[in-house]
Amino acid sequence: MTRRNLALRETEGWRPPALRNPGRLRRFSDLQLASIWNDLRPMLAHETGAVLDVGCGEQPYRSLLPPGSRYQGLDIAESGERFGYARSDTLYITGYPWPVADGSVDLVLCTEVLEHVLEPGRLLSEVQRCLQPGGRLLLTVPFAARWHFVPYDYWRFTPSSMAHLLREAGFLDVRIYGRGNPLTVASQKVLALIAPLRVMRVVLSPVAAGAALVGQLSLKRDWGEDCLGYTVQARKPS
Known about the structure:
Helix content: 25-40%
CATH class of the domain at 25-179 and 227-235: Alpha Beta
Low-confidence stretches: none
């Protein structure tokens, strides 16, 4: 049997649709998205300060913020080329430091970004610089997830590694929550197997709908050591 040398891999065979409008149907069939949405909705509902969305892409979670918040999206200059995202109201950067004043941000939002960063500790230190004393970081990272946006997908973080990185960057009150459980992961794997099969997608749609329903119901339970990913909260010292 000839095995692939994945060190030479520069592309992926299938890429899910861009996350531009996370409506109810997309949130039902995409359990990663659903789990993030469910976590962020109550955490962002009362945020009225300055919010910096790091690696914002198409800003899918901006709508969860109340009208009183002051939002700024930030992403890398290569975002359009690498990930297919480009918005006129996003601040695009090419390195460090970011063009954001020290201590000027109340909340940094960073969703499914850190796995695409070669130096995650450097990014977290920059987040710390931008936050005001007592400011909050809210981020999500995948765990049981396919290799995506190849080759720009570098890491899978455990709670142990996330806690270490955040404390090394000077954050306090680190809280890490699993999104889903082993049943959610199994449901997501079924959906991931079916999604690229364009010819068979209609035939297998009942299976996909069943897997999505089971996955959605499973999100209500917190158990086991396997999950889709982690939602993380931390605070800059006052």
